[in-house]
Amino acid sequence: MVEQQTETVHIQGTDEMEIDLVELLYFFRSRLIVIIIGFVVGALVAGSITQFFITPKFTGVSKVYMVSSSSDSVVDLTDLNIGTSLSSDYEELLKTRPIIEGVIEELDLDHTYEELLDMITIATINDTRILTITAESTIPEEAQAIANTLADMAVSELPGLMDTATPNIAEWAVFPEKKSSPSLATNTMIGALICMAVVLGVLTFFYVTDDTLKTADDVEKEFGVMPLTVVPEGYIEAISDKVEEQIEKEKKKKKKKKRRDVAHESGKD
After folding, report:
1. CA 101/CA 107 separation, integer angstroms
2. Half-sphere exposure (Cβ direction) of 13: Cα atoms closer than 13 Å
3. Per-residue confidence band for 100, with pLDDT thresholds at 50, 70 and 90
């Protein structure tokens, strides 16, 4: 005889509560339609919000190659190390107010210094001497123009300020034809999973707070007594119908017998 093993979770509180994980999974299985509906509703809501209520953003990316050369034709190891350190300096100097406000003035933008600073990201790729300038905007032409103007200023303005060799433009920002954010697929899946998690949480709450006795095991756990018999669920109505049919048959038999007796008595008379 193989004993069925079940996993239980004990919740400590004022009263000790025991949750049978196997029974909980069966409970979820019986409410599978509700869970699926919650998943679909969450996906539809998140997808609709992403598609119709969130303004898409576009990203322009330009790259500047930083290298310092002690001569016009030869670049030695010292120059490469200096170029690497200069990348960090350029990264910070491109965020200064004169540079950012110069971009605003040249492109005739309606953004303030703080707003434009939030729209750009300047970073060095790993430990290389390549500086990446990223601009994000709701207008694709604006994102491209900001990234390229910053790259141009990195070449034209900063070498004189730092008294270093002029860096090279490695890549100009191209026109962003596709939006960079938000992601419809990602937001839709996140919304679906969140809604499904909420549904599972509500179902778990109903399962935990339901104190009705449904099985013989529930009766034994509650009262410590095993019931003598159990009426199978789903057959009560059928049994009741059979009982009613049997009563009707007995009534009809009694009526027929009474009629026969009356007829017999009449025959004698």
Report:
1. 10
2. 7
3. very high
Contact call for residues 162 and 154 (beta carbons, < 8 A): no
What are the structural domain ranges in the chain? 8-53+183-223, 58-171
| Nearest CA among 175, 168, 128 for reference residue 152 | 168
Cβ atoms of 216 and 227 closer than 8 Å:
yes
At 216-252, the pLDDT tens digits run 666 666 666 666 665 665 555 555 666 677 778 887 7
**CA–CA distance from 42 to each of 84, 101, 158 (Å)?**
48, 43, 50
**H helix runs in 130-183, sequence order:** 140-156, 158-162
Model confidence at 114, pLDDT cuts 50, 70, 90, reads very high
Query: What is the per-residue pLDDT across 150-203, written as a single tens digit (0 to 9) for each?
Result: 999 988 888 888 777 788 899 999 999 999 999 999 999 999 999 999 999 999
Alpha-carbon dihedral sign for residues 20, 23, 29, 31: negative
Going along the chain, which residue ranges are E strands?
A: 8-11, 17-20, 58-65, 120-124, 130-137, 168-171
Question: Could you say which of 3.40.30, 3.30.70, 3.90.550, 3.30.950 is the CATH number of the domain covering 58-171?
Answer: 3.30.70
| Token representation of residue 148 | 């390229």
Q: Please tell me whether the overall predicted TM-score, pTM, comes out greater than 0.90 for this model.
A: no
CA geometry: angle at 238 spanning 233 and 242, to 5°?
A: 140
